[in-house]
User: Which sequence fits this backbone?
């Protein structure tokens, strides 16, 4: 006994744990879920130990030699395979291989009792007979064969479920034995379907390298090693501070071996000219500098020279010397005074006069 439970009690306990696992609201990758997976596997393992110690099954026996109450224990490896598929304790690749191993052990035990003649494909039966399990035998490589096998398994599963339901309603012991055997055959059909899916997943997982298998070149390995010991010094003037390295303008742009020491900008006159022409007129127009333009305007007489405070002249002295100009100014002033007297302000407004 283990934990004070018999084989029957431990098997029932393992089933209750598996039921809780299937209905668990926790995520499969949560610690609570994985703890329940581990407990379920442990319980089924204890059942397996019971079966081994009690020597319930033997390769030399037939189905008639098995006690009716012991038939259900042939499904222990099937339940262990189903539970292992949910485990994340190992890498996914190792988990798949372990689940496949449990499925084949389950199928092999059923085959020893002659329970799989009409259930398993011939390729898997041949694999079980040789005792050498290879992953390539798990799934058919012929698409037409694979589809035909799936249809056949679906039909067989429905037939077995109907058979189990009919036999369980009977009180005859022989009918109950047949119901137990039919249930094992139903598990075998499900096991083959699971093997097909696991093999597909195995092909996908195998494409990814396992953790720790990525190789590192010698230079990178030395760099990582130096990082653990202290600052690296691949070259003279190296600094771990990016800011100091970027602002150090005393370093040449390129080292002797062609490494870039600091940021720099490549300027291309031809490229800049092309960019300016993108939004241009599409024509090559004549151009000149500002100085050249002013010189040209001066030659054409388009620029008036002089002006400004330094060139302002006092015209009052010239007017005093010129009597004719003085007389003209006086005459104009008198005419303006006479006009103002003859036309007082507002005299031209005839609106609203009574």
Assistant:
């Amino acid at each position: 006994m283990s934990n004070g439970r018999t084989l029957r009690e431990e098997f029932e306990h393992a089933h209750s744990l598996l039921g809780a696992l299937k209905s668990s609201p926790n995520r499969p990758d949560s610690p609570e879920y994985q703890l329940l997976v581990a407990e379920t596997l442990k319980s089924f393992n204890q059942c397996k130990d019971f079966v081994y110690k009690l020597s319930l099954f033997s390769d030399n026996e037939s189905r008639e030699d098995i006690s009716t109450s012991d038939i259900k224990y042939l499904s222990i490896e099937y339940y262990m395979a189903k539970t292992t598929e949910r485990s994340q304790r190992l890498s996914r690749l190792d988990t798949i291989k372990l689940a496949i191993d449990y499925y084949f052990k389950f199928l092999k035990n059923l085959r020893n009792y002659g329970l799989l003649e009409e259930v398993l494909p011939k390729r898997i039966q041949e694999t079980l007979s040789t005792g050498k399990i290879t992953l390539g035998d798990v799934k058919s490589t012929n698409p037409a064969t694979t589809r035909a096998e799936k249809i056949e398994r679906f039909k067989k599963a429905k037939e077995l479920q109907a058979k189990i339901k009919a036999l369980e309603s009977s009180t005859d012991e022989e009918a109950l034995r047949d119901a137990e055997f039919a249930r094992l055959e139903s598990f075998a059909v499900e096991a083959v379907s699971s093997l097909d899916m696991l093999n597909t997943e195995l092909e996908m997982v195998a494409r990814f390298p396992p953790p720790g298998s990525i190789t590192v070149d010698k230079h990178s390995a030395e760099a990582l090693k130096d990082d653990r010991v202290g600052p690296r010094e691949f070259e003279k003037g190296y600094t771990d501070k990016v800011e100091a390295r970027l602002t150090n303008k005393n370093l040449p742009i390129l080292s002797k071996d062609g490494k870039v020491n600091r940021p720099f900008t490549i300027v291309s006159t031809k490229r800049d000219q092309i960019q300016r022409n993108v939004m241009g007129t599409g024509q090559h127009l004549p151009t000149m500098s500002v100085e050249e333009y002013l010189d040209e305007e001066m030659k054409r007489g388009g620029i008036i020279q002089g002006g400004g405070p330094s060139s302002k002249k006092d015209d009052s002295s010239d007017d005093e010397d010129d009597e004719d100009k003085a007389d003209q100014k006086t005459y104009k002033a008198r005419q303006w005074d006479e006009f103002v007297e003859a036309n007082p302000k507002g005299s031209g407004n005839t609106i609203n006069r009574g």
Notes: DSSP finds 13 helices and no strands in the chain. Residues 216-238 have pLDDT under 50 and may be disordered. The two ends are 139 Å apart (CA to CA).
